[in-house]
Amino acid sequence: MFESLSERLESAFKQLKGEGRISEINVASTVKEIRRALVDADVNYKIAKEFTDKVKEKAQGEKVLTAISPGQLMVKIVKDELAALMGGEAAELELKATPTIILIAGLQGSGKTTFSGKLANYLKTKKGKKPLLVAADIYRPAAIDQLKVLGSQIDVPVYSEPENKNAVQIAENAIREAKQQGNNVIIIDTAGRLAVDEAMMTEVANIRQAVKPNEILFVVDSMTGQDAVNTAKAFNDRLDFSGVVLTKLDGDTRGGAALTIKYTVEKPIKFVSMGEKLDTLDVFYPERMAQRILGMGDITTLVERAQAQFNEEQAKKLEKKIRQNQFDFEDFREQLQQIKKMGNLKDLMGMIPGVGKAIKDIDISDDAFKGIEAMIGSMTPYERNNPDVIDGSRRKRIAKGAGKEIQDVNQFMKQFDQMRQMMKMMNKMGAGGKGLKALG
Ligand code: GDP
Fold this sequence. Notes:
Layout: H1 3-14, H2 24-40, H3 45-61, H4 70-85, E1 100-106, H5 112-127, E2 131-136, H6 141-154, E3 158-159, H7 167-181, E4 185-190, H8 198-211, E5 215-221, H9 226-239, E6 243-247, H10 256-265, E7 269-273, E8 281-283, H11 286-293, H12 299-309, H13 312-323, H14 329-341, H15 345-349, H16 355-358, H17 370-377, H18 381-385, H19 392-402, H20 406-431, H21 436-439
Parallel strand pairs: 1-4, 1-5, 2-3, 2-4, 5-6, 6-7
Antiparallel strand pairs: 7-8
Helix pairs in contact: 1-2, 2-3, 3-4, 4-11, 5-6, 7-8, 9-10, 17-19, 19-20
This protein binds guanosine-5'-diphosphate.
Guanosine-5'-diphosphate is lined by residues 106, 108-114, 192, 247-248, 250-251, 273-276.
């Protein structure tokens, strides 16, 4: 995401490398580069100009401290300004009302239905809510089926009336049903059109009038660049929505929509959607996004993803096994499974500062673990619990069972052994009182 913008900004900052101080001349040429980079990322020229004028003003007003180079100072100023442009603080969903009614609007294909499923999943698993999904698309029967499939995957009920052609009525009936069934959040997925269209707007506006939603979320495909911003304007003029959802940020988007929607419609981006899996929804944090754009990674999100998978009891058990030098293949497999649950591997690695750029052209699919898992799967439980018994003939059998070459198994065994040696060494350091604690 935003790779080309990140690269361009980085090369703009490079101009300041080696400079001892901020001067009018070096700031001017850096700022010009930043402006070009933004325009190429599909940021409207007027916004880009205003942005860089602010950056220039700030940079020239700063006294460069000896501890910080002009390059670093510029990165900090640009990061703060990018975060401010995208909204500054994160905007929370308004969930106080019972039931909370959330209306979802947007063009067809923007990712509305997928997002509705993701939002239901998020509210259920992260906020302890009992959502009801409502299929209010009366034109495409397939949309009802799609929502039902999503609902069944996350075990959330879906309300629909396939024969009813009145979307307002469906929404009203759904609210009655939710109250009866004790659902405290109602997510209404409305019909979209391929382009902004008066009949669609009127229909959504009518639903809005009838059900008085607590939130109206406008869903938009971030790959559509400036069009996304224009569509947002049209929807906001009619619906006065409360927040924006940017989808398909996992794709090759240049960034313009993410950077300028907030500025243009004065409504916050509340969520970003990064994939087709139902657990790839993130609350939008302008500051973290600015860091990612500048190649600083996003350790906060990475840690949060890890914490979501963290199970204290399991962690204690694992720690004990490592302390007693008993880490085995069963533990290894468990760890792999936990990492996989945290999300797409490349996406995760991209959150580590500096790594995103380094791996951008490398194909890291989630299949990376498959070979290892197949080898562990091909071991007997006894072998998994006692890695040391795995001799030559057992290796041959494991390779065959996993569809691998014996060299693959040898290499994996060697790596596993090195890992255990490292753990042993750390344990010894710990016993001497100079363990990891002393390092941290
Ligand atoms: P709707 O017509 O607005 O309801 O859009 P859908 O939810 O049916 O999504 C349209 C297409 O985009 C589907 O193929 C989805 O799988 C895909 N899609 C939705 N959200 C994302 C996303 O965040 N990333 C990617 N890569 N694809 C998405």
